[in-house]
Amino acid sequence: MPDAVLTEVHHRLLVITLNRPEAGNAINAEMVEGLLEAMDRLERDDRLAVAVLTGAGHRFSSGVEPRCLRSGTMSTCFTEFVEYESTKPLVAAVEGFAVAAGLEIVLRCDLVVAARGAKLGVPEVTTGLFAGAGGLSRLPHRLPYGVAMEMALTGEPITAEQAHQYGFVSRVTDPGGALGAAIELAGRIASNDSIAVTASKRRVADSQGLTAAEFWELQRINVAASVSRNAKGRPNASGEERPPAWTGR
């Protein structure tokens, strides 16, 4: 049986693929275990700066496999994944659809690239359920309140184009082009100093909902990127018109 999650290294980025295309990349226990292992690998390996998360075939994910829902065996381990605090950026590459727990995985990512016509939704209410793995709390942080509320209460999805207009999707591609565009975007991230990227990701994420005073206090707490060996070395590299050789320290 093929692995439910595949990983492949492209220079400084890790491509993580949900690999159950015959089942619409439905999430089961094996897939969650593979996702957690991939996240641990990303965090432990200093050579890796960013990850791209995608689905095999023409779909991202249809959500949790029905038999796993019925057995109730998925809740704890899937919650462990969506709560995983990654210091490194994650870029989702979405084709076809990302719905239910599939969208909750996308919401776990920092940036989203999606193909035109891709559907993003939380249809749980149409089956007597609700999105219980962070979707309902994260959705209004990525979309306007009214849009998030309508999606949650009606179960109707939005398209990649609509999500792009709302700022949830960063880039829209032709069908079949989401992974390539996500890898290109991740490559641009990986070309930067990993300390500065980590600090910038944290500042953006942690500043949501803060007052100006709270933000500047947070800004003063951690200025490691501005005093890192890499940051000090960049002016020379720039002056010599060669790419800086980031050390990640």
Structural class, please? alpha/beta
Terminal-residue CA separation: 41 Å
**Can you count the helices?**
12
CATH superfamily of the largest domain: 2-enoyl-CoA Hydratase, Chain A, domain 1
Mean pLDDT: 84
- What is Rg? 19 Å
Query: Which sequence of strands runs across the widest sheet?
Result: 1-2-3-4-6-9
Task: Characterize the overall form.
Answer: globular
% residues in beta strands: 15-25%
Unreliable spans are none
State the name of the first-level CATH class of the largest domain: Alpha Beta
CATH topology of the largest domain: 2-enoyl-CoA Hydratase, Chain A, domain 1
User: Helix share of residues?
Assistant: 40-55%
How many structurally independent domains? 2
Task: Give the strand tally.
Answer: 9
Reported for the largest beta sheet, the result is: 6 strands, mixed
CATH A-level architecture of the largest domain: Alpha-Beta Complex
The secondary-structure element order is EEHEHHEEHEEHHEHEHHHHH
Write up this protein.
There is one protein chain. The chain is of the alpha/beta class and 249 residues long. It has 2 domains: 5-190, 2-enoyl-CoA Hydratase, Chain A, domain 1 (Alpha-Beta Complex); 194-239. It has 12 helices and 9 strands. The chain has helices at 29-44, 66-71, 75-82, 101-107, 135-142, 145-154, 160-166, 178-190, 194-206, 212-221, 224-227, 229-239, and strands at 5-10, 13-18, 50-55, 90-94, 97-99, 111-115, 119-121, 158-159, 171-173. The strands form 2 sheets. A 6-stranded mixed β-sheet has the order 1-2-3-4-6-9, with helices on both faces. Strands 5-7-8 form a 3-stranded mixed β-sheet. Strand 1 and strand 2 (13-18) form a beta hairpin. Helix 1 packs parallel to helix 3 (75-82), helix 4 crosses helix 5 (135-142) and helix 5 packs antiparallel against helix 6 (145-154). The longest helix has 16 residues, at 29-44. The mean pLDDT is 84.
